[in-house]
Amino acid sequence: MRYQISGRQIDIGEALQVHVKEQLGTVVDKYTGRPTDANVFFSKTGSEFQCEAIVHLSTGLTAQANGKAHEIYAAFEACCEKLDKQLRRYKRRLKDHHKERPQPVELSGASSYILASDSEGTESEPDSLQPIIIAEMETKIPSLSVGEAVMQMELAGAPVLIFRNEGKESVNVVYRREDGNIGWIDP
Question: Which residues contact 22 (CB under 8 A, 6 or more apart)?
């Protein structure tokens, strides 16, 4: 498994990097046999450290967790516990869905844009109907079944997930509805 351990505005020592590799490797190996890479970011806000871990699995799923504490090791441990809980919760579903999958999930490239919002709050007519693009980036659209897409959305804690439906090769959307249920758009 590839690790990327970095600090935002703080230095990360060798001892912390070794600790993260050992602990995260133990947690991930306990529940899944094929992780591909892990990104761990440390930051400090005031007197509190924050740890964010993102683990990509070869099945196409991404597990993400955050932890906060006044000590940097405690922040990582809190993050690791949340990641452990997520992977434990989905262990049976991961095995059931991916037992028959001999190859990793296929990913398609797509463009992603961030548009400026109308922060003025005025009700006047805009000068142009073209939105202002703040950022443009590349994103990946996975090829998944509907069940895998719902599981991926829940693991990531995202309100919506766009995916290519394996059965039909069409682009679909799953999203969390206001009533708490999951919606599925299949054009």
Answer: none
DSSP-derived 3-state class of residue 120: coil
Helix (H, G, I), strand (E, B) or coil at 157: coil
- Map out the domains of the chain with their CATH numbers: 2-98 (3.30.160.100), 107-185 (3.30.505.50)
Which pLDDT score, from 0 to 100, does residue 105 have?
Answer: 63
For residue 60, CA distances in Å to 81, 141, 176 come to: 22, 10, 20
Q: What are phi and psi of 105, to 5 degrees?
A: -65, 135
Confidence at residue 107, expressed as pLDDT on a 0 to 100 scale: 66
Q: Token digits for 127?
A: 């000068």
Percent of the chain at pLDDT exceeding 70? 77
**Stretch 150-174: mean pLDDT:** 83
